[in-house]
Amino acid sequence: xxxxxxxxxxxxxxxxxxxxEEELSRRGYLVVCxxxxxxxxxxxxxxxFDVALLDLKLPxxxxxxxxxxxRRRWPDxxxxxxxxxxxxxxxxxxxxxxxxxxLFKPCRPADLRESVRTALERRQQALRQxxxxxxxxxxxxRNLEExxxxxxxxxxxxxxxxxxxxxxxxxxxxxxxxxxxxxxHVITWHGRLLDLSPLEFEIVAYLARCAPKVxxxxxxxxxxQGFDSDPWEASNLMRSxxxxxxxxxxxxxGAGELIRTVRGIGYALIVG
Length: 272
Prior knowledge:
Elements: E1 6-10, H1 14-26, E2 30-34, H2 37-46, E3 51-55, H3 63-73, E4 78-83, H4 88-96, E5 101-104, H5 109-146, E6 172-175, E7 178-181, E8 186-189, E9 192-193, H6 198-210, H7 217-225, H8 231-253, E10 259-262, E11 266-269
Helix pairs in contact: 2-3, 6-7, 6-8, 7-8
């Protein structure tokens, strides 16, 4: 295999393929682009890739089907799913089935570079562990042969594929139609991405973890901003942030309220 990291890009949108090819080629990667799941299967049947970027929604053979084949044939290939905002739940399922990361389309160059870099590092780590295991088996085989022992199971050229990595249980949280990715600071509601500030993200995430409990403004300030405040100060601080969150929710989704106010008590996430 070439010393250049080899990356497979699978996406049926030409503009996405061109963007990914240009960005990755500029970083010194060898990039192969295809537009269908069928073409992707043909590529991985004859060649191994360091990383694969797979569109989740492909005509015909889906990205998940390509993922399954990759996991069986080339278990050390790092897989990054490409997804639209409305399919975050499907991306989480892909992570459970062995993908290492996901990126929203169109992705930012910085996010793309970081995701590919991480996938390559994980691949190298997996290959080192696999080689050490093979060497250990070979050493044990030689030692037993010297003692005149017979090994019933031959040493394979490759160790058994590891179990698919599963996403950290603390990373994702789902409450009804609200899905939160703690690692990427991403929240979708009704399948639409909410463009929240870091503090607004933390407020929604805190309310989601507490749902359906009503949370006082003082508890929100303490839990999200890390300091104690009197009821009047906390109420003023949270009222402004909640107002901005509601404006962004209405602008993006048009789907009604995400947070309800319980007069004299606090705020609660609307579950459902």
